[in-house]
Amino acid sequence: MDKITAMPPVLEVRDYSLDYRTHAGPFSALKHINLEIARGEVLGLVGESGSGKTSLVWSIMRYLPGNAWEKSGAIRLSGEELGDKSEREMRAIRGRRMSMVFQDPSTSLNPTLSLGRQLSEVLVHRPGRRPKPGSIRSGSRRRS
Prior knowledge:
The protein is an alpha+beta fold and about 140 residues long. The protein has helices at about 55-60, 85-95, 105-110, 115-125, and strands at about 10-20, 25-35, 70-75, 80.
């Protein structure tokens, strides 16, 4: 009988806590966050303003400001600890293996261009990545 090996989650956040250093002292932004996203799963972060959604995503993307203090936990992409990666290594990962859609897509996406065209630009501007001919369709489709 073959031994089945479980695939690690695509994204795993374990017991992650984050503070920001402020003039008034530390501000606890995230406390003991745990989540897993398996291949093919989609996760939407929903919460009130100031609840930590952006801080969590900035932590995952490794875009933390200088006053951020990661108190505990781990963030892993396909089993690789992102906290151990250099900025150069993270630049190679961002946009190729992970990316983020900002909270307000109206400031990130151009409403005068099709979504397909905008997404294809990401591929065109990344070395070694090109969309397959015919894979991106321009124009909009509307259901009647």
